[in-house]
Amino acid sequence: MTIATTDNQSSSAHSIMRGLLAFGSAELANRIVRILVVIVIARQLVPELVGVAALTLSLFELIRVIANIGVGQKIIAASDQALESVCNAAYRIFWCWCMLVAAIQLIAAGALFIFFDQGLAAQMLAVLCGVYFFMPGGLVQCFRLMRSKKLPTVARIGATQTIADHLLTGLLVFFWPNPWAIVLPKLLTAPLWLILMRRAESWSFDPGSAPAPYRDMLNFGAAILVTDILLALRNNLDKLIISAFLGVSALGSYYFAFNAGIGIVGALATAFGTVIYPHLCNPDGHRQSKDMMQYIIAAALLIFGMLTAAQFFLAPIYVPLIFGAQWVHAIPLIQILSLAGIPLAMGAIASAYLRAIDRASLDAWCGLCVCILALVAMGIGAQSGLIEAATGWVLGTTMAVGTYTLILAIKSQLNLKEKAHV
Q1: Measuring CA to CA, which residue among 130, 93, 129 is closest to residue 108?
Q2: Predicted local confidence at residue 1, as pLDDT
Q3: Low-confidence residues of the chain, pLDDT below 50?
Q4: Model pTM score
Q5: How far, CA to CA in Å, does 401 sit from each of 106, 165, 415?
Q6: Which candidate, 51, 62, 307, 333, has a CA 20 to 30 Å from the CA of 91?
């Protein structure tokens, strides 16, 4: 029994590291290709045309957050007996929800055209509604792959689509300097994602299998959607706060420092939460659940501690070398923001744990606390300057995440001890 448990733990540990490596490699490849494409865009398009495309894509990305309703998490957490009924219900919900999001985006496009006189941006935003007709056909397959702990496959498919998007953008912009060249690849690469997902997982809707109760799935999914919206707000309202208090020049420095300092680590923290979630669902035993959490926390502290230290101490070297001497003034900002790496990783673990134990609503409340405290602390710091604003964001995030993570860790250990005695 001990040997079997040890083998399971070793297999899970290997799977987690393989999944994180896959997502990390995909993110690195994505960013390298994106930098090359940005260079092409900067040389081929004037700022006004880039601005129209940026407006369209910003609205598209903001609206697409709404499409991430969390019912797919129920597929990952479903038992073997309930899996098919959960998949059937999720499939129907995905189609209805994506059509609703497409309608919302059409309304937004109409508002751009009627009220803001942005005819071209409105046309492009309306065309991008086509993306939502490809998503539902592959979402169930995506979450079934995650349930089977095939995270490298999911990461590879996502990276393939994103890199194809960037390469097609660069090619179109080079031969056709037009805002459509930046926007159209988002739609043109959607079928690629769908084909790859359906090829990787052969599931199809079964009309003969009764769907799981919709209300339970929608309540769970709504809580996850709220959490994702709060995360999007936290990642965007900080820029508005900097702009309002310190001006556009300070915003430029902050935007650069955020992407160079915490942007990559933040993406890896989100990926870490995605990777560990299937391992926290339906553990084989209480002892395995406890050991798994201890391993996950230790791995996060080691990985993100090393990344944080590397960014903090190497920033004076890699910033002027890679980005140029004009960004040397942003090194202290990068160092401060990099300190949020471990809190973000702990927050991702807590979020995955709460969703795994069917407490997605509590996860949403925790996300709200982080959002409010981080932005309020940043607003207070912005009264004094840019460094103080960044320090406030890091301290607010750390205090909120640290507090509820500690409470959850204590409660989970007490629950495991109680169950072990039963």
Answers
A1: 129
A2: 44
A3: 1-4, 285-286
A4: 0.82
A5: 37, 35, 21
A6: 62
Position 144: which residue type? R
